[in-house]
């Protein structure tokens, strides 16, 4: 058993330092995004109720409670995360089932639970709980040689939470679960699966951008060329080649049905704006257009702390939450944006480093789940802010305002650090 002194030396303080720096910089940007020159400047003369009207003050409370969570997470026996993974998963599934029935609609979705003055989003916490559950399952199988039953069980564990989240009309949070594929790939999943998913995604995107007859002609010519110039394919894989061609053609025609019949109106418009930014500049395209203006107006070094005009006049909606990166670009400029990106890349590198030194499959898989989830949020959030990804409403880790977001990412990261602190006591499973 480790003494407190020895345990403290085992904690990865480099990662802790990066986390604290990111949380502090995130709070500065939340303060800037919610700052108003007309607001009272002498905050010490305000009552607690009056202070609760300011996002920057509430974010301080979230940070304070996050620090308390860190202490609890590091004190809990690290084996508990493995032992109770399935129980937590079952409780989380029950909560996701209940949420749409008891939550009141907010911004078109029923995904927030209200506990007095506090609002919590179960979908945020579902990510780290699912990571624990799939990591425990992965620790008991060999992904390189798993049978169909194992594949089905892993798919069930991964896909059930996002399906329930979609039922609450929170599609953006559901998409995050696709990031688990990166962790599975590290543990031996065939790269062919990733290749097929990437190819499928590319075909769907092309079907939205290119006339369908052109695509059908292109893939038909490609099939003919393969069959003509590769006799081996002709002799042994003709049915497979034709089958792949039929699947591709089906996907090309299926895009219209999916786009027009399954997506909601605001989701279709967001994709249309991504393809053609000038499609609806005063409607759905307003957020992205104003975000680009805000980031571009910052120039190289930015306008300065609290000097962002786009921020002060509320041109960008949700600027302290989903579009917090606009504040970074406008007030800190290109240099500040690069520093922010470097901070995230450094954190991701450190998480992968910590994951690779784990002695157990459970710890390593969980570490890669942590890296995958944070990477997805980071890439998609910044991508949608600069118009490279559709607006799906997911926060920037440790930067965006909100208790659910900060708490979930804090728990996600510090469970890994708690497991890592005891890595030398783990047996290879």
Automatic annotation (TrEMBL):
The keyword Transmembrane applies. The keyword Transport does not apply. It holds the Pfam family FTSW_RODA_SPOVE. GO terms for cellular component: cell division site; plasma membrane. GO terms for biological process: cell division; regulation of cell shape. The chain crosses the membrane at residues 12-36, 56-76, 83-103, 152-185, 192-210, 216-233, 240-259, 332-353, 365-392, 398-419. Keywords: Cell shape, Membrane, Transmembrane, Transmembrane helix. Its main location: membrane. It is a multi-pass membrane protein. InterPro entries: Cell_cycle_FtsW-rel_CS, FtsW/RodA. GO terms for molecular function: lipid-linked peptidoglycan transporter activity. It is found in: Membrane. This is Cell wall polymerase. It comes from Hymenobacter aerilatus. The lineage of its organism: Bacteria, Pseudomonadati, Bacteroidota, Cytophagia, Cytophagales.
């Amino acid at each position: 058993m480790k003494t407190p002194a020895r345990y403290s030396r085992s904690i990865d303080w480099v990662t802790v330092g990066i986390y604290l720096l990111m949380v502090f910089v995130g709070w500065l940007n939340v303060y800037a995004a919610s700052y108003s020159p007309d607001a009272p400047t002498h905050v010490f003369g305000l009552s607690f109720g009056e202070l609760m009207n300011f996002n920057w003050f509430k974010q301080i409370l979230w940070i304070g409670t996050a620090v308390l969570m860190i202490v609890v997470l590091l004190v809990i026996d690290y084996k508990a995360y493995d032992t109770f993974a399935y129980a937590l998963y079952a409780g989380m599934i029950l909560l996701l089932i209940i949420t749409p029935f008891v939550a009141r609609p907010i911004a078109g979705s029923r995904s927030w639970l209200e506990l007095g003055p506090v609002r919590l989003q179960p979908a945020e916490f579902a990510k780290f709980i699912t990571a624990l559950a799939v990591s425990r399952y992965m620790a008991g199988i060999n992904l390189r040689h798993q049978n169909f039953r194992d594949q089905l069980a892993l798919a069930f564990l991964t896909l059930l939470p996002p399906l329930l989240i979609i039922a609450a009309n929170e599609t953006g949070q559901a998409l995050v679960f696709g990031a688990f594929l990166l962790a599975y790939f590290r543990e031996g999943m065939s790269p062919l699966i990733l290749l097929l998913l990437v190819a499928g995604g590319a075909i769907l995107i092309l079907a939205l951008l290119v006339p369908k007859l052109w695509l059908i002609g292109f893939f038909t010519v490609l099939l003919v060329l393969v069959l003509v110039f590769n006799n081996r394919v002709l002799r042994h894989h003709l049915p497979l080649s034709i089958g792949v061609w039929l699947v591709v053609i089906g996907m090309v025609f299926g895009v219209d049905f999916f786009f027009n019949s399954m997506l909601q109106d605001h989701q279709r418009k967001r994709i249309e704006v991504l393809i053609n930014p000038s499609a609806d500049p005063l409607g759905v395209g307003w957020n992205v257009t104003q975000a680009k203006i805000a980031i571009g107006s910052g120039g190289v070094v930015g306008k300065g702390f609290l000097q962002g005009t786009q921020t002060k006049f509320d041109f960008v909606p949700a600027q302290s939450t989903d579009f917090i990166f606009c504040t970074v670009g406008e007030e800190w400029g290109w240099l500040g944006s690069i520093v922010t990106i470097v901070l995230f890349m450094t954190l991701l590198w450190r998480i992968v480093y910590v994951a690779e030194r784990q002695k157990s499959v459970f710890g390593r898989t969980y570490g890669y789940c942590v890296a995958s989830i944070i990477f997805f949020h980071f890439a998609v959030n910044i991508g949608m802010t600069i118009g490279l990804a559709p607006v799906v409403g997911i926060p920037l880790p440790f930067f965006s305002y909100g208790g659910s977001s900060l708490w979930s990412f804090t728990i996600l990261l510090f469970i890994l650090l708690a497991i890592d602190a005891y890595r030398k006591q783990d047996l290879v499973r």
